[in-house]
């Protein structure tokens, strides 16, 4: 009997390298620029640095962040953070898991959803264990975005060429509209 495929996890940990990958810093800049406060924020790809969660917990915005990582090192860094800084973990929760296995029933609705790594990590092994596709995950997160809430993409993502095609189809079929661009980020708004 064939063995079940293991989870398609991220075998590294990603430090904050703003020159190479500024998306998380641009995201917190955008939240500040938009004066987003008291909001629920979903963040795909925490990094070992956990910049988005920590910044929101410490900058007085009262934003709450739900982050997901598929990296053992990154979730270990979060565990240490939660132990060392319980005040941060009150506003910032990170889970280990495959975003393509999220369970809709377990998610609240968010005012802002970052999907910077759309199309970067999905592989045939994901399909082998019944994971959602990029488009299915994008649709799920759109349902989990509050009307008037925003969904953000990263235009410098290594997979943006592929992501762009999915975003184009999605924007025709789902109740969303392009709001604009901010630094390296592409911002959509959910109608309603
Ligand atoms: C290149 S790192 C970028 C981290 C951070 N956003 C930054 O720019 O500094 C990619 C991130 O995506 C996460 N990731 C990769 N595949 C994933 C998956 N299937 N589900 C959830 N997170 C995943 C990794 O754990 C990692 O945090």
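^ structure tokens above, recovered residues below v
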């Amino acid at each position: 009997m064939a063995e079940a495929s293991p989870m398609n996890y991220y075998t590294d940990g990603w430090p904050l390298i703003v020159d190479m990958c500024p998306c998380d810093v641009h995201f917190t800049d955008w939240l500040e620029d938009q004066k987003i406060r008291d909001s629920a924020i979903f963040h795909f790809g925490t990094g070992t640095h956990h910049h988005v969660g920590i910044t929101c917990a410490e900058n007085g915005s009262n934003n709450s962040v739900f982050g997901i990582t598929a990296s053992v090192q990154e979730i270990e860094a979060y565990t240490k953070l939660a132990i060392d800084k319980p005040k941060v973990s009150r506003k910032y929760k990170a889970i280990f898991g495959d975003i393509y296995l999220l369970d809709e029933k377990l998610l609240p609705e968010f005012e802002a959803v970052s999907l910077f790594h759309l199309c970067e990590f999905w592989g045939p092994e994901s399909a082998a264990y019944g994971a959602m596709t990029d488009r299915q995950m994008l649709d799920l997160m759109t349902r989990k975005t509050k009307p008037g809430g925003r969904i953000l993409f990263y235009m410098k993502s290594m997979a943006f060429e592929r992501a762009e095609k999915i975003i184009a189809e999605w924007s025709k079929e789902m109740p969303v509209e392009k709001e604009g661009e901010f630094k390296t980020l592409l911002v959509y708004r959910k109608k309603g």
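The chain has a mean pLDDT of 96.
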